[in-house]
Fold each of these.
Amino acid sequence: MSSSHAPAACEAQVRRGRPIVVSVLAGEQLRETGIVKLLEKLPGLSVHPFSTGTRSDVVVADLTGRSGQTMRPLIESHETYGSAVVVIADESVEAELTALAAAGVTSILHVADATWSNLLAAIRRTLGGEEAAPPRVRADLDDQLRSVRVGRTAAAIRLGLSEREIAVLRHLSEGLDTSEITKAMKISERTVKYILWGVMRRFSLRNRVHAVAFAIRAGVL
């Protein structure tokens, strides 16, 4: 089954009373579970975590912060079962635009826009047969990523944050502790603490959670 026929086939399944099989792939277990629970509320869907070799009509793939290795199972699922793919993405997949098209991607949400309502709307569009052609998919994602990069850069300049300060804040937002940030950035723990202290002092932030929340609200992360 080709990607151009997958949504139409899904719609036909609903009319025949058979559930549409939706699988969810995410890097974090908590996020995967949350998406599964959300989709389980929609009638006519059979929802489960993604598993290689298991048929899916639609795959919801949260590729935030993940490497290109994630693309292979998505492509295989698309080639074997004609699975349509709804992607949640960030800058980490920018180098995988061609692979995204090959994986049968029908809709892309940047992580900053991936509200539950937007996710459900994307799935409904896919089930209704409103596919985006691969060139459109690549162009849309590229435009979204470029817009987010420009916005984040402008926010960082406005606040006077350095690339190193932003990197530390980003790692904090991903749940890393001081020792893990040290390994990721290849700097000493003392340097990490000094960077955080400098940010918190400049902006009168109380703790690390406050620092991450401040960076998100300011549009840096």
Amino acid sequence: MLCDLPSGARRTIAAFLLATVFASAAAAQEDGLYHKRYEDWYEPFEPLPSLPEGIQGVVRPNSKAGRVLHINTLREVFQALQACWHPPGGSGYSGQEITLRLSFKRNGEVLGKPRITYYKPGTQGEQRESFTRSVREAFERCTPFPFTESFGAAIAGRIFSFRFVDAQPM
């Protein structure tokens, strides 16, 4: 049957069939059918990387810590806070711990209100109020931190977790 058609008609039909095949393949690709099949195969073998939770660090009492004049690294943020924090008098390594989550503005001020996410009572439970007050006073005394312009722009709005530990360093 097909052979009875003139050669121009056969070429037209072949071109139409090829165009239909390419059009349907392109439509399937736009709908994401090929991509979804690839993801179904690819996903079990390589899990997606996890996102970082934030910047975390421990602050311990240190009477030798010096004041930081310009903050340009994450380490210097924790050093500056360590220089400002003084545990309550007479606590003598009470074993208390408190974790705060907060963010900074690019000029070094605290953004919003710090949030206590963890508290571990020490050997003397009645010292909780004085311990949390000493942490709050450290931020009041030290902020705004003297961030450099580039560092302030890089960390503005990032979540910091500060863990204050009043325990004997290991």
Amino acid sequence: MREIAVRDFGVPTTKLLQWLQVQRAIESFDQSHSVAAAAAAGGFSDQAHFTR
């Protein structure tokens, strides 16, 4: 799986999953304008973890 992710996306699977997590949070923030809601939608443990 790792080799496929690097070949197709240019990054390891962990970085790809982090990017997808951040994308979900950003989409949620666009809709709700709430950092707390964005952090929850992205699967972050709390706002501080999201903003770091």
Amino acid sequence: MYPELSFKQQTGAGLPVAIFVITVLALLVTGMAQLQESSANSVSLQIQSQRAFLAAESGAQLGVGRALQPISGPQCFSGTFSFTVGGLKECSAIVSCFTNAPGQGVVIRSEGRCGISTPSEGKRAVEVRLL
């Protein structure tokens, strides 16, 4: 009634197709993992850069405050501020102050650095002119 089937008559492409699908899926998963890792690194660099900018702004504000002290008169301050609390922890601002020609005012330059000596180190600079 039923014809006898032998394994010699069966030819199929199941195994090669399965290997191909598994390989393609493995490549997709690997690519997505690398994309996720690079995205995480990018976010980390962006955060460090923003923190460095805020450190530079804070350093500039400290420099302006020192330059415009009403009690002891204007002082041009240059130095380094290290932040130890809050969002600027482990950040620093290098402030340099110099005067232009007489009557041209004071220039305060502040460079903020965060994550020093790490792969995701951030550096930003701010310059303020006081006339």
